[in-house]
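G., the chain you wanted modeled:
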Amino acid sequence: MNEVFLIIIAYLIGSIPTAVWTSRFFFGIDIRDFGSGNSGATNTYRVLGAKWGTFVMIVDLLKALVAVKLAFFLPYQSHSDFYLTNIQLGLGLAAVLGHIFPVWADFRGGKGVATLFGMVLGIQPNVAFCCVGIFALVLYLTRWVSLSSILASIAFPIFILFIFNEPEKLYRVFAITVALMVLLTHQKNIGRILKGSETKMPILKHRDRRKNKQD
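Predicted structure as tokens:
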């Protein structure tokens, strides 16, 4: 019963629609009416700018991180590493589900990449930092946040299965599922990337100006 209660709390935490509330409170708009129509950090970055996009990303990450740590409110969580990992997975997934289908925002949320990262950060920080490295490198090279998210998610099961050799079977299945889910939710982005029409983030402007002058 305690587990079910905490999973509901984790879902409600994940349901906090950071981008929607931020856009409504500070700009008087619904972020879902602009850009890609998504209420995630990437669309916030695109529509409202880097400051607000970064803010939304951090809060969305923290939602899952807090949800995962709810496991430590259970009195017997320390009795088994197997139990702790599995209850953290359940709590994290509940938060991700809340982010994608938020009860506070008509069940229209984001794609859950930042929230997934917060979940992994709470369970296995070493793997999370490796995925961040992949994300940052791809973003630096391409300025496509979507491609960075896709490749980081594909790297996730590779790190889990082969590099860190995670023994927990459920976590291994979870890692593979995450990669497949991110690929599924980014089909439109993949199409735009292949066409070369995907929106690039306005970062590294000085580098881009130099490149354009050289061209």
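The chain is about 70% helix and 0% strand.

Shout if anything looks off.
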